[in-house]
Write a structure and sequence with these properties.
The structure is a homodimer of 188-residue chains.
Chain A: H1 8-23, H2 30-37, H3 41-47, H4 60-72, H5 79-96, H6 98-109, H7 112-134, H8 140-162, H9 170-185
Helix pairs in contact in A: 1-2, 2-3, 4-5, 4-7, 5-8, 5-9, 7-8, 8-9
The structure holds a DNA duplex (30 and 30 nucleotides).
Chain lengths: 188, 188
DNA sequence: ACACCAATGTCAGCCACTGTCATCATGTAG
DNA sequence: CTACATGATGACAGTGGCTGACATTGGTGT
């Protein structure tokens, strides 16, 4: 399916990852990435929408995991139970690739443009979760609030899971955050 | 305090606003904005960090309102009550400038880069709210979760307040969202 | 009068990103 | 076996966001 060395996309992904980690995101030009991958700048933009997107390639799988888990949750599960199931399902996915996640996140949090892109992905995740919840018969407002809760808990859990001082499983952080949520919203 | 026409920043802000509304964000160059304001492209970048920031100038006031309201809340108020006070305090600020807010939001939601910047502002708001809650003696995790709740409720309320089909006060939307939150998190 | 200052102008340049056309190995039809 | 269609890549020119360096200018303080 091509006469050139296969895996052009993967090579550029790895080259970008390395260069961003070595000298930083801003200090890396797209031409640098393409050169290390043995390709052209133009080819880079045929595979990735922009210089940032290369770091987020494959993040749709998380969206899929969340939505399918929510949709497949028992019909009698409450909205909170449905998103809890989704958050728990994501646990192993993260625990398996902790090292990579830490490196990736250190690159992202060091650069504002990358943070902006990450926030956009989270916003899309929220929309997708809300849509999944609506398929369970939830109203629009309830779905929005629950979806925001879900992604909020996810984000907070992830931030704490990344810290070297908290070497716990991702699921543990999720349960701690959920417990806090329950405490905060408990009627006084 | 200057020999040139005063209010350079305001003129560029208005010019940008008009042009973004007339022909769209992408179709407007910074040179266009500067020309309409009677200034130079270079001067634009002396006042605004980038082409997007001109639409977000002055958004620190919302952060201030939230943080001060939370810090000044009664010492015996629960975290939920503190953020409720902040959300209620923001009501009048929005109801007064509904038309402008609608136009601004229509520009922002039409362009991905602008959405990304807006999400970044919301993330910073979340951080600020969490810091304010921590001054009330709240733990880190509880502060993070509550802050996320606060900005989440705010975002959802704002989205619904903007819709032409829901001509209610901002505070009403806040209370509806808070009621949903209570229903969702109520122990079964 | 003089030096100083703060906001703007001018100019050159980098780099992200795009449109367009040429190129070339592979698969397939003839 | 040849010819052509195909899809990925190369080559090249161009736009526009953004920055650095230096000059300009009119008001301010001494």
């Amino acid at each position: 399916m091509g006469r050139w060395e296969p895996g052009a996309l993967g090579r550029m992904q790895q080259a970008a990852f390395e260069l961003y980690a070595e000298r930083g995101f801003e200090q890396t030009t797209v031409a640098d990435i393409a050169e290390r991958a043995g390709l052209t700048e133009r080819t880079f933009f045929r595979h990735f929408a922009d210089k940032r997107e290369v770091l987020f390639f494959g993040s749709e799988s998380l969206v899929d995991l969340f939505t399918t888990t929510i949709i497949d949750a028992p019909a009698d599960a409450t909205p909170l139970q449905a998103i809890t199931a989704a958050l728990e399902a994501a646990g192993p996915l993260f625990d398996e690739r902790r090292a990579g996640a830490v490196l990736r996140q250190s690159i992202i949090s060091a650069n504002t443009p990358l943070m902006e892109r990450e926030l956009m992905k989270m916003a899309k995740l929220t929309t997708a979760v809300a849509a999944a919840l609506r398929t369970r018969g939830l109203g629009e407002l309830a779905a929005s609030v629950t979806a925001d809760l879900c992604v909020g808990i996810f984000t907070i859990s992830f931030q704490r899971w990344i810290l070297p001082s908290n070497p716990q499983a991702f699921g543990d952080h999720v349960h701690q955050a959920l417990a806090e949520l329950a405490a905060i919203t408990a009627a006084p």
